[in-house]
Amino acid sequence: MAFGKGCHLHLIDGSAYIFRAYHALPPLTRKSDGLPVGAVAGFCNMLWSELQKDHGADGPTHIAVIFDKGSHTFRNDLYDLYKANRDEMPEDLRPQMPLTREATLAFNIACKELEGYEADDIIATLARQAREAGGRVTIISSDKDLMQLVGGGVEMFDAMKNRRIGPEEVEEKFGVRPERVIDVQALAGDSVDNIPGAPGIGVKTAALLINEFGDLDTLLARAEEIKQPKRRQTLIEKADQIRLSKRLVTLDQDTPLDFTLDDLELRDPEPEVLMDFLNQMEFRALTRRVADHFGAAPPPAPEIAPVSERAPEDAPAPEQAAFTPGDYVTIRDADTLERWLDQARARGWLAVDTETTSLDEMQADLVGVSLCIEPGQAGYLPLGHTAGGDDLFGGSAPQPGQMPMAQALALLKPVLEDPAILKIGQNMKYDFKIFARHGIRVAPIDDTMLLSYAMHAGLHGHGMDALSDRHLNHQPIPIKELIGSGKAQITFDKVEIDKATAYAAEDADVTLRLWQAFKPQLHRLRATTIYETEERPLVPVLADMEMAGVRVDTSVLARMSNAFAQKMAGLEDEIQQVAGQPFNVASPKQLGEILFETMGAEGGKKGKTGAWGTGADVLEDIAASENEQAARLAGLVLDWRQIAKLKSTYTDALQTHVNPETGRVHTSYSIAGANTGRLASTDPNLQNIPVRSDEGRRIREAFVAGPGMRLVSLDYSQIELRILAHVANLPEMKQAFKDGIDIHAMTAAEMFGVPVEGMDPAIRRQAKAINFGVIYGISGFGLARNLRIPRAEAQGFIDRYFERFPGIRRYMDETVNFAKEHGYVETIFGRRIHTPEINAKGPGAGFAKRAAINAPIQGAAADIIRRAMVRMPDAIADLPARMLLQVHDELIFEVEEGAEEALIGAARAVMEGAAEPAVKLSLPLVVDGGVGHSWAEAH
Description:
Nucleotidyltransferase, domain 5, 5 domains
């Protein structure tokens, strides 16, 4: 069918679908091989729902899913900081991206992407073509950047909110009609995409200005007429930056497509092809729905290896009671609660879970507690459910049938603290902190998330829903069914108690069943020691650290932000002096023209737009070149960009994370976040504060001790190199550590035959780069870029390194071979890290090998600091001190003035002896210590 008048094109924003599915759904892995498929499952369900909608006569005649091809587009050539602050794609999402393309084709839908352009540009071009051909267009997305296309037969549809977006809805959001959206965006900027815009001007102000002056060009031409001095100055001084921002937000409606609208004609899925794909993905429920729709028999489930050939985690769950939410009990009075607690005392265990108003444990209100003693026998104790309306005193009236919270907690406290009753939870650290804020210290505990992590790290996620589906073949009630999503989302206290009971009691029921399935497997998988000595006892330690928080002086952060702003301004002046002309420092295009056309810098390359590339790697090469003027300019721009990132990402953002009640920052540590055992810090991430530059290190000045207190930092010295020397049995390296010799200078002496005394610092830096690079499996290409030397020379360094230290090559080869044979690697403490991709082919093979080589080293370092943290509370119990933070190989404490040395002595002894008695290292661990009012002084 040729596209023309009367045709209706549906354009699905594939990238938005994928990320929405990934973040909305719990982790899911394919049982047969552990491949992450959660985002693919959500993507397929959304596609199927879209195809099954009854549009009547208004349905699509043509349809396509549009994807982003890669991260680099022509906008990066215009402005190399474009989207520079976006996080790396999650590792478990990366392998799912090509599967979503396969899924689209399996649904018999056109799947389109184009190198150098964003999906939005392709959508814009297709929308223009369809409109010009007399057809209509529906863009299935909620992306605000696409709203500039609305009108003239083009509309949007937010599938998650079931909401049409036309010109009126666009004007409601931006304050202007669709044709002026790019003007507003150019002024307001976008922190997500790192579009600079006009500092201090938001969407509302931008809309007022555009409505007053008509369009952006007119506004900038008449900026002198603006009455507000600061606003007038901004528009005049930042005019080039604003114009650049407009180019960045304007979608390219002339993208060079290699297909036509006719190629997007709607076609019915081929049942066999679609069901075969869904079946291979092991999406049982969707496969059945598709089969029912086509009146076909679903294909047989993929063959999975017999139990004797499978890992124990793949064994089917034992037969047990069915999940029947209607049988769950609402516990509304003290007598009923006492009967439940009596059963817990008799049984010796109790699965427990809390429901709250927020994921922030430091500010969340307790809403209810769920309990389970036997599979299928679960109850929910509502404590803080409200009717939603306001009472006479301005608060929310409680729903009827709830115990007073104080009475309920008084009955729960003896059981939750009883050493004879095991409390079982999923992600127990959260519930521990909720109860701790109410004066209850839960102990002893078991945690199903950590049981799974100890046994199956690297195979799949450890969230409750994913574990329930994998091990119990049961999908719990989704939380969105109760609280909704988006602007209409409510907090759990507004949920009706009957509905809350079915949801919350099921969580406790699932948790107990997972515990019964996991606990016997610990010994068979040789994970008992790791779980009992590191994972489980770390829960209360981290909970106490997180609740303590670290004091932050926001005035210091504010001063730093101002200082950074002034330094940026000073650098801008200096940059323009070196350049010999004024230009927009944030404009890669203008910078490239000056560097390569005016100054004659070498090594330049133009992108598709004709603009010179000025990424960090390009500028670093120029900064090291013999073209003095260009080198000076490149170095200054690199400095400016670094300061700009520090200001936006740290000194500005950290101020928003200070808890208003405590005046402290309370980060949250994920015990099961990394496969190797390293802790992950979030909200905010305090493990990612840069320390390689003076400005980056200064950020630590804002982390301060309380009145009469000092901060103490204790840091393992080169722990991963020490572990490498031990496991690879490197006599020269071990002896150097024992003798206190500079390990990097020693490596240089061994490799290059130069004496340690009077060594050239450049040679030592080369050896240091190789020392740390080898641990992470660095390639010749990677080392060449790090050292700014030819690749052949870098590869020669690596080759000579292996010649001088043959034990390292032997260790690497043996580790990879072990991983290929067994599907996992182990640390010297017995932590097992699975490597499901180790036998993969293609681009991912090298990454899998490097990860396998590094995991036992990084994992052992993680084991050591975990063991130290677990022992630390007892070691410093008699001191006026507490542990606040863990940052990689460093622990930070707060201690009363006068007790610093006592703390350092006690804590250092724990840290340096943390490996024993489990492992006797063949060389000592060394811990450096420091004291100060701030973290910067102490480190």
